[in-house]
């Protein structure tokens, strides 16, 4: 093992803070015993705060993919049409999952360089006079590209079209990093996971639900067993679960929520925005291109960087790992070997970002990738300026 800490700078799983590791390092308890109710209730209530909802949040012991499936099987029936948007790799995976469940996705094609376009969604909904489309599904923070979709504007587009479809949003990598408001934005099912902005290890996933979604679940015809919201709701009311929850991850979730409350969600979002801006300043100084084409779509969670023609992103990542013990995210499917992704999310600060960007800059040299020096310097300028601006705002 190399000396010092490994830099896990992939866009999820993110670094788990020591405080959360300590909170999980505690005996697993009887999940049906009297002491558990407090743990369960704190987790279920705290999750509501993070999602910005007064309604329920269902917590599963599963990866995010499970919560994708849960959102669909609880609310839809075999053969239902769903409108999905090709923002990138994760949106494509959700669409494939929908197909395997016997749903009929209408896929609005995208170029993997921007967020979902509300006007394109509105246009498809207006064509659907018979209201065959039962749900609109959008990825909020597309982790394969670093593009953010405007969820509030998409809600307005659905309303303007006068369409009754459910609105489902995957914010697996957006939650607790960039602004998200389940109730205020009128989302019916929000899908998320533990291992990104929530700073936990992988293993928990979430469905925040609206009353409309719960009503749809009463008549939805797709088969469901493990994912059934119905079975969860009764036990959840008293802080319990119908089957064994991921007890130690719930200890961790409660600690993560405490940390987010202490920092304040607004400050957490501002920190991610600032780190995104600093990372992009570095990319620009290197003379490289950010995959996400429109500045207003660019994410505070990650930055996907395009490799100059003829240079392998995977070879660059292997060299970075070998020489500096740092992991960057790979390019997924369509952009495999063409991009690398810098994660700047979760338990992360200015100097971790500087170290990460220094790792990129040195590995670019080692890999013989043409670039200009000074990326870290450019990022430091943004970070330094940001700090004095923050201080000025506080005074
Ligand atoms: C990570 C991620 C997923 C997949 O989650 P798993 O936990 O790997 O199943 C889905 N969507 C987005 C946007 C993600 O970032």
TrEMBL record:
The modification N6-(pyridoxal phosphate)lysine is found at residue 196. Coiled coil: none annotated. Keywords: Pyridoxal phosphate, Pyruvate. One of its GO terms (molecular function) is L-serine-pyruvate transaminase activity. It comes from the Bacteria. Substrate binds at residue 341. GO terms for biological process: glycine biosynthetic process, by transamination of glyoxylate. It holds the Pfam family Aminotran_5. Residues 38-326 form the Aminotransferase class V domain. The keyword Lipid metabolism does not apply. Its cofactor is pyridoxal 5'-phosphate. The keyword Membrane does not apply. Belongs to the class-V pyridoxal-phosphate-dependent aminotransferase family. This is Alanine-glyoxylate transaminase / serine-glyoxylate transaminase / serine-pyruvate transaminase. It comes from Limimaricola pyoseonensis.
